[in-house]
Amino acid sequence: MLNQDFKNLLVNQERDQDVRRIWEQLESVPKGIQAHKTEIKAEEDALAESKSKLQGLEVQRNDLEMQVGSAQEQIAKYKTQQLQVKKNEEFQALTHEIEALEKKISDWEEEEIGLLLDIDSETEVFSKRESVFGDLVSKIRGQINALEQRQAELQGELAEAQNALGLSKEAVKPNLLNSYERLSTRTKMPVVVAVEDQKCLGCHLRISNVALEQARKGEELTTCDNCGRIVYLAS
Ligand SMILES: [Zn+2]
């Protein structure tokens, strides 16, 4: 049968574990929030990238159209000049210039067809992204809000748990508490464990007969020969 001092120690350990568990949950919250913020940033970047790609293609297309336009003007000028020249070789030279420009125009127009196809597919990408963007971002913001609420709840739970731990500490004998706290800073919780079939339930190894006997008497603090945890016989 466990004495009251030991029962108090076990209560203290339980509350200590509550505090630790809440701490761990609280510590994970900012990382979760940050991850969601990164998701939003990635969505914004993808949308902006698609938009600027589309704008870049439009600029290229406008440039091409301007090139075509000015080449056509140039051709018209050459044709006017052809009406004025007197020598046949001058006329031929202008014809040569006109043909060269016409060849360029045809190349540019072909290039423009390719550009138009690119613009179509990029417009589709951009429209798809834009149509889901609002919903996606507000969904992620909702997740961030939920995490922030959870954070506030956990802070409340932590304050309560710390308060309860403070009270249970007061009920534990100082020498027991010292041993417990020393152990709990360097050993994986729980550090007060039962013995079953002569095995420590902390490390699952067999404890010595001497330790077993000592634990049975329950008069002094018994520790596991292997892991150093405080052990007790539950029955
Ligand atoms: Zn052990």
* SSE succession: HHHEEHEE
Share of helical residues: over 70%
- The largest beta-sheet arranges its strands as 2-1-4-3
Q: Tell me the Rg in angstroms.
A: 40 Å
| CATH fold call of the largest domain | Helix Hairpins
> Mind summarizing the main beta sheet?
4 strands, mixed
State the shape.
rod-shaped
What is the strand tally? Answer: 4
Q: Provide the β-strand percentage band.
A: 5-15%
User: Given this structure, which CATH class of the largest domain is correct?
Assistant: Mainly Alpha
**Poorly predicted ranges (pLDDT <50, ≥5 residues)?**
none
- Mean of residue pLDDT values: 95
Distance between the ends = 6 Å
As for the number of domains, it is: 2
Keywords:
235 residues, mainly alpha, Helix Hairpins, 2 domains, 4 strands, binds zinc ion
